[in-house]
Design brief:
CATH class of the largest domain: Alpha Beta
GO molecular function: NAD+ poly-ADP-ribosyltransferase activity; tRNA 2'-phosphotransferase activity
Oligomer: single chain
Number of domains: 2
Function: Removes the 2'-phosphate from RNA via an intermediate in which the phosphate is ADP-ribosylated by NAD followed by a presumed transesterification to release the RNA and generate ADP-ribose 1''-2''-cyclic phosphate (APPR>P). May function as an ADP-ribosylase.
Shape: globular
Strand order of the largest sheet: 1-3-2
Number of helices: 6
InterPro entries: Ptrans_KptA/Tpt1, RNA_2'-PTrans_C, RNA_2'-PTrans_KptA, RNA_2'-PTrans_N
Protein name: Probable RNA 2'-phosphotransferase
Keywords: NAD, Transferase
Distance between the termini: 45 Å
Length: 181
């Protein structure tokens, strides 16, 4: 069994491959972001440590951010959200809580206040139901800042929201008028 440090390294690499660059190890994602588990393990074998099914299941099961998921048969795997490659995750629109949160770095606050939250190179803007999660996300960008998103009002104004398998709320754009700081 690998160390937690190695598991984290493998998890980050898997996230990079399954969300952004599947071609890096010679795999393809289908239209919904799935790839064959056997092929992934085979292609991953060129790395150290060697990935096997037991290790992959452990990484999926223990990833704190629940970044990955297996299909019901556990013969396919995908990232749950955050893709920059074109895929359709197949999520259905859902009514969000009245307020959601978005964490960012303080250096981006003025830009966000003027233009709103943009998905940029990703498929969606990512929002959290918990302020603590948004703070943690914001810390990745420097000194954290958390916006409250008036998601209930957005929904009533006909904006669509989706809930990913790892409970991240997704939407295409959050106009500045729906943000509170």
């Amino acid at each position: 069994m690998t160390s937690e440090k190695e598991n984290k390294r493998i998890s980050k690499f898997l996230s990079y491959v399954l969300r952004h660059h599947p071609e890096l190890i010679g795999i393809e994602l289908d239209e919904n972001g799935w790839t064959d588990v056997s092929l992934l393990i085979q292609k991953f074998r060129k790395t150290e440590p060697k990935l096997d099914l037991e290790m992959l299941r452990h990484i999926v099961d223990t990833n704190a951010k629940k970044r990955f998921g297996f299909n019901e048969q556990q013969d396919k795997i995908r990232a749950n959200q955050g893709h920059s490659v074109k895929i359709d995750l197949g999520y259905s629109p859902q009514e969000p809580p009245e307020v959601l949160y978005h964490g960012t770095g303080t250096k981006f606050v003025d830009l966000i206040k003027s233009s709103g939250l943009e998905k940029q190179s990703r498929h969606h803007v990512h929002l959290s139901q918990h302020k603590e999660t948004a703070i943690n996300v914001g810390q990745r960008h420097g000194k954290p800042f958390v916006f409250e998103v008036l998601s209930g009002q957005m929904y009533r104004d006909n904006y669509e929201f989706f809930l990913s398998d790892n409970e991240v709320w997704l939407t295409d754009h959050v106009p500045a008028k729906y943000l509170k700081d």
